[in-house]
Amino acid sequence: MRRALSFLTPLGGVAAPSPAALPWFPVVGAVLGLAVGAVWWGASEVWPPALAAALALAADLALTGMLHLDGLVDSADGLLAPLDRERRLEVMADPRAGAFGVGAAVAVLLLRWAALAALAPAPLLVAGLWCASRSVMAAAARCVPYARPSGLASAFLPGAGARRGAGVPAVAGLVVAVILAAVATGWGGAAGVAALVAAAVGVVALAHRRLGGFTGDVLGAAGLAGETAGLLVAAARW
Asked: Is residue 1 over pLDDT 90?
């Protein structure tokens, strides 16, 4: 679990990523979601919904070390611009942010804030969605080729034969995610998990088409895009 914490958050100290960390991704996601949800709920007892949503958003950015936001910015710059494959990978490795990345980050942050402000505080909903996003990340890291010759996320690639059980933790994580979200907000929460999976898979599929596989940035972008879609669907007028 420490390796998963180290990769997904600033917590856990220094630990090299490995395939053994992937089964813990859904657990770390659920814990992060509960923490963000607790901040959201606690802040709503003191401040108006808009400010409580902003504080929950800030807590999420702090607890993830902005890792996934950085992945979203890099992925948007690399995947959305009209470039060839090698140039896309170069752009994603560049620490500078371009117009596509800035636009994607602003849009996603605004949508997340608006969805949280429109919902009644529900820590279990956030726990479920965050658990589901890390479940999709774990599945993608095991089931999709790595796009670079080497890199930080390449440490998650399994050895021969390891792929057979790759889907078990991810499926278990998604089942738990649906239960948590449904308990929190009923069918809207369950639909949110479904929307999350669709959006996250869409990002990974786009990366596979344009890069030939995933990168660490793509995993972060998929998780963040999925969570945002899940919050929007959960906030719909059911």
From this structure: no
DSSP state of 179: H
Which tens digit of pLDDT belongs to each residue from 213-225?
A: 999 899 999 999 9
User: Would you state the structure tokens that stand for residue 16, as one six-digit string?
Assistant: 């090299």
**Is there a contact between 190 and 202 (Cβ–Cβ < 8 Å)?**
no
In three-state secondary structure terms, 45 is coil
Beta bridge partners of 146: 214
3-state helix, strand, coil in the chain (%, to 5): 75, 0, 20
Residue with tokens 């170069």: 90
Distances (CA, A) of 118 to 48, 73, 170: 11, 25, 29
Kindly report, residue by residue over 136-189, the tens digit of the pLDDT: 999 998 889 998 877 666 666 665 444 444 567 789 999 999 999 999 999 999
Q: What is the pLDDT of residues 74-90, one digit of tens each?
A: 999 999 999 999 999 99
Distances in whole angstroms, Cα of residue 31 to Cα of each of 35, 45, 134: 6, 21, 11
3-state secondary structure of 136: helix
DSSP string, 187-212: HHHHHHHHHHHHHHHHHHHHHHHHHS
Radius of gyration of the chain (CA): 17
Q: Where are the beta strands (DSSP E) in the chain?
A: none
Task: Please write the tens of the pLDDT for every residue from 8-23.
Answer: 877 766 556 666 778 8
CA-based nearest residue to 33, from 154, 140, 135: 135
**Which phi and psi (to 5°) does residue 214 adopt?**
-105, 165
What backbone phi and psi angles, to 5 degrees, belong to 146? -85, 135
